[in-house]
Model the fold of this input.
Amino acid sequence: MVSSLEADPSVPGPVAAPPDVEILPGMPVALGGPRGMEVTRTLPSRGRRMVGAWCFLDAYGPHNLGTSAGMRVGPHPHLGLQTVSWLVQGEILHSDSLGHRQEIRPGQLNLMTAGRGISHSEETPAEHGSVLHGVQLWVALPDADRDVSPSFDHHTDLPVLTDGGLTATVLLGDLAGAQSPARCFSPLVGADITLTAGTETHLPLRPDFEYAVLALDGQVTVAGSALSAGPLLYLGTGRSTLPLKAKGSARLLLLGGEPFSEQLVMWWNFIGRSHDDIAEARQSWAADDGRFGTVHGYAGLPIPAPAMPITRLVARGRGR
Ligand code: MN
Done:
C-alpha cells in the first residue's frame, strides 16, 4: 500500500498498517476558508472514499475558544446527503432554511436530511463554554431516496449500551440490538464509545458491514492497532467482533455500514450521480432561485459556490 508515487501528493492515501487494516491519515482543512477553524478530514481519502454510506468525516478540536473564534460556517447548500453533527465538548448553533434554529450539546445528535435541497449555517453560539471538540459527518443517500423532502431532527434520546467498562451511544443505525431513532436510509451504524481505564472487550460486529474507527480522546488498541486522535483506522468487512483495549480511559467513534455500491459525484457540498446534477445545483445556489431556501439569523453572508472544474465531473465508486 504505497501511495507516494501517485498523481496528487496533496491528498493523503492509505499508509501501510497491520494486515486487513488501513490507516487513513487525513488532511488539515480550514473550515469556511483560510481564516476558518482547522479540522482534520479523513473521509473522503484517496483510495478510501466511503465507509458504508458514510462519505465525509471532519474532526475538530479540542479548540480553546479563548484564543479561537470557534465555528463560523455561513449559509451553504446541501444535496443528496444527511449531515450529522456530534460533539465531545462545547456547543454549536444550527440554523436552516426550513426555519429550524437548534443548539446542540454533547450527547445530542443534529441530523439534517438534505434530500433534494436545503441550506444551513453552523456557528459557535454567542454564549459558549471554553472548548469546542467534535465531529461533522455526511451520509450519502441511496439513489431511491436522494430526492426526499429536506428535514431536520434533533435527538436527545439516543440509546446507550453498557458492558463492563464500555459505554456506547448509538447515533445512527443499530449496534448489538440497540437502535437509534434517527432517520436512516441504508444499513449502517455510527456509535460513540467510551472505555474506562483498563477495559478489554470485544464489540459485536456484522461481517457484511465495513467498519472504521476514529479516536476522539485518549489511546485505544483496535484489532491490534494502536490508535489516538487524528487518523481514521479502516477495518474492512468480514469481522464478527472487534477487540478493543484501553490502558487509560479512551473515547472513540465507530462507523460502519453495508459497502455502498452506487457510484457518486461528490463536489463541494453536493452529492449527485452526474456532472449535470452538480452543475444544476451550483447554478441554483448561485442564482438563489429558491431551491435551497434562505437561512435566517446568521450574522454574515452566504458562502458562494466555487467555480465548476474545467473538466466534467465523473461518478466514482467507494474505494480505489
Ligand atoms: Mn453543512
